[in-house]
Design brief:
153 residues, alpha+beta, Alpha-D-Glucose-1,6-Bisphosphate, Chain A, domain 4, seven-stranded antiparallel sheet, 3 helices, globular
């Protein structure tokens, strides 16, 4: 099992960053390698939204689908995701958004292990780089939404 944790300070509000990461239906528009995403179910439980979402990722001719349980807690500004079916033995990610005087702190933790040991060794080496590209894409999406809000004001 591999764990990757990162903390970033970004110039956007914690609420905006939560909005960007929680809007899973938009992922195919801005996240690299995400080719499709559909929400299979959505329910509201104890002030949290609980989703089941199927994501298709691809690179070149390689395509893979997996389904995750996503728990969105807007009041705590947290997002917790765990794979329920797919190619991973374990896949979890956890987001925390903390307001700061200027912007917010984004904490992200990724825990993963592929079922296939060879794939785990090969893909595992590149997974850290993949995360950095994806984190950059979330930040770019926040900038885009922030710029649109300023233009509309």
């Amino acid at each position: 099992m591999t764990t990757h944790a990162e903390t970033r300070i970004v110039p956007y509000t914690a609420d905006l960053m939560f909005q960007v990461v929680s809007d899973v239906e938009q992922y195919p528009k801005f996240l690299p390698w995400v080719v499709a995403l559909r929400v299979l179910s959505r329910e509201h439980v104890k002030n949290r939204d609980v989703l089941s979402a199927e994501m298709a990722v691809g690179y070149g001719a390689l395509r893979e689908k997996y389904t995750s349980r996503v728990i969105l807690d807007p009041s705590a500004r947290t997002i917790d995701v765990a794979q329920t079916s797919g190619p991973f033995k374990q896949l979890e990610n956890h987001w925390r958004f903390t307001p700061l005087a200027q912007g917010c702190e984004v904490q992200f933790t990724l825990i993963y292990e592929f079922r296939n040991r060879v794939l785990n060794a090969v893909a595992g080496a590149a997974f850290g780089k993949v995360y950095v590209r994806m984190a950059d894409a979330f930040e770019a999406r926040a900038k885009q939404l922030s710029d649109q809000a300023v233009q509309q004001a």
